[in-house]
Amino acid sequence: MTSRLPDSSEESLNLVRRRILAITWVVTAIHGLFGTLGGAYALGSDRRGDQIILLVVSVPLAFIIFGVTRVILDKPVFTWRSLPFLLVLLVPTVAAFFWIL
């Protein structure tokens, strides 16, 4: 005899799984974003062109992190309620523009 969870319990379990996956994805991907920004800083001012390329690459990277996280959570990608989270992801990139350049 197999024991099946009721439908509401299964939905709750799937919601928890999605949230854990989203948290794991965001933490891992944010390290990549900070690595890109740190790499731009580590290059030094004598390689200004490479620094600018890394800074420009960090913007689409932030959008990808945001979009994939929303897809994992099974939410609409762009809504007014999700806009603050997108801005939080872009803060390190904007700060790096002023810090590096």
From TrEMBL:
Keywords assigned: Membrane, Transmembrane, Transmembrane helix
The keyword Transmembrane helix belongs to this UniProt entry's keyword annotation: yes
Residue spans crossing the bilayer: 20-43, 52-73, 79-100
Domain of life: Bacteria
Protein name: Uncharacterized protein
Organism taxonomic ancestry: Bacteria, Bacillati, Actinomycetota, Actinomycetes, Propionibacteriales
